[in-house]
Amino acid sequence: MTFLVFASTTVDLLLLGAVLLISFASDLLTERFRFPDVLWLIALGFLAGPLFHLIPPGPILTLAPLVGTAALVIILYDAGLDMNARLVRPFAGSAVLFALSGWAIAFGLLFGVSLWLFAPGRSTCRSSSRSPWPVPRAPSSFPSRAGSSRSPGCGPTSTWTGRSRIRYRSSG
């Protein structure tokens, strides 16, 4: 176990033996109390790591993404082996329909909103009267920097990309 930074090889072997012993004990507790063994192991990992600091977090954190992915693959593989195809088959059609309908609704809503917001010919200029958002207008007596009453970036080929840089004087 060269990826863990411990004092010696004997400590590594003792820790490996302790982990194996705890996992077998967890399996016995699962059979006795009908409680998932993953929960026992998570609780023991919490006790050994963050609570009592028996295991240094540095080397573990570098391997966490790899170990997490491998654990997920093993859990899903085990669940697939335990699944009874005869019990799942009557619900397969409705499950696929449910998953696809959720995807289709989300896609349709996002496509419709993006088409409405970014349609060709739709002006996103701040001074446009077709803007979907309420926009405060500048008083006609306070023209912009360029000397015209238009907001910056509202030419025939440009679109409004963010906050206006004009600061109007307060009346009062």
TrEMBL record:
Q: Which InterPro entries match?
A: Cation/H_exchanger_TM, Na+/solute_symporter_sf
Q: Where is the composition biased (Low complexity)?
A: 126-156
What span is annotated as the signal peptide, if there is one?
none
Q: Which Gene3D superfamilies match?
A: 1.20.1530.20
Q: Per the UniProt entry, what are the Gene Ontology biological process annotations, in alphabetical order?
A: proton transmembrane transport
The name this protein goes by in its record: Cation/H+ exchanger transmembrane domain-containing protein
Q: Give the Cation/H+ exchanger transmembrane domain ranges.
A: 23-118
Subcellular location field: Cell membrane
Q: Which GO molecular function annotations are given, in alphabetical order?
A: antiporter activity
Provide GO CC annotations from the record. plasma membrane
Q: What is its main location?
A: membrane
Specify the protein's topology with respect to the membrane.
Answer: Multi-pass membrane protein
Q: Which Pfam families match?
A: Na_H_Exchanger (PF00999)
Source organism per entry reads mine drainage metagenome
Instruction: Report residue spans for region: Disordered.
Output: 124-172
Print the keywords alphabetically: Antiport, Cell membrane, Ion transport, Membrane, Transmembrane, Transmembrane helix, Transport
> Where do the TM regions start and end?
6-26, 38-55, 61-79, 91-119
